[in-house]
Predict the structure of 4-diphosphocytidyl-2-C-methyl-D-erythritol kinase.
Amino acid sequence: MSSITVSCPGKVNLFLDVVGKRQDGYHLIESLFLPITDIADTLSIKQVDTEGISISCDHPDVPTDSKNLVYKAAQAFADKTKIEATWQITLDKNIPVAGGMGGGSSNAASTFMALNQLYNHPLTKTEMQQLAIKIGADIPFFFEKSPAFVQGIGEKITPVKIEESLFILFVPFTFPIAASWAYKNRQAGFSHGEINCAEYTRKLNANESPDTYNDLAHALTEKFPLLKQTCEELLSLGAYSSNVSGSGPTCFALFKDEESLDLAHNKLKRPSIKAKLISS
Ligand SMILES: C[C@@](CO)(OP(=O)(O)O)[C@H](O)COP(=O)(O)OP(=O)(O)OC[C@H]1O[C@@H](n2ccc(N)nc2=O)[C@H](O)[C@@H]1O
Ligand SMILES: Nc1ncnc2c1ncn2[C@@H]1O[C@H](COP(=O)(O)OP(=O)(O)O)[C@@H](O)[C@H]1O
């Protein structure tokens, strides 16, 4: 009987543009995703004698039944490979739940990759990503584990090279916001892809501090003024840009260097988490 333990990073969307809507109601996005390894969950999978998938989790708001994205991923893996599911899965959450940082999606991608490793790679990454997109739009990105330009509803992933270190402060909140709510209540109309990812990345890499953008932020800050207030506070503490992460409510801010990140972290009167993306 073997077991495997893996780390599941969070994510942030430096820009999130909504460029259209599919017939099934899903929105087409253009987004620059960054993996955030400093804020990560831990997932362990143990092979056991009993049939089935059991999940335990240290966070009370995370379902431990078939509604868990980890369960859905494990079931999809078993169905596709015809491997009998005999798995005890433990999940330690650090990524804010329903916080716009992709925690459940990251857990699901890690489940696919961990099971694939445990059973000697019966599936290719593309096969796993094709199964994953049916479970959640954000999951395919988490197979890459590096910055990426994400299009479609989340299935089209182009790696992006970030050559400058990024210093980010995250401000989590305990109330959840569903992605479906954010998309349903977003402002009317679609962007025509105004944000050019190559140009955006060039500015990041040239230390020109491009502003973040989130198409969903307007609806989120209208409904939850606390988020607008938090973003303003972050700017007043020296951030060069601040925004809501994905469908919220987690807010984040970008700083020029480690000193200004530390200063804001110390001065902010709310719990916050520092994260660094250090260029190689
Ligand atoms: C907003 C984003 C930005 O990265 O992330 P989060 O903030 O949730 O982490 C994603 O687009 C969220 O992806 P994810 O959370 O995986 O979405 P899903 O579970 O597949 O879908 C939940 C619901 O959100 C809406 N949805 C999701 C993705 C998308 N491209 N268009 C949509 O309209 C649909 O109403 C869908 O029923
Ligand atoms: N493994 C999981 N971790 C967190 N939430 C999960 C998980 N599986 C299912 N969920 C449910 O999915 C919803 C979205 O959670 P999460 O992925 O953390 O947020 P977001 O989509 O905002 O990034 C939550 O309401 C939670 O009940």
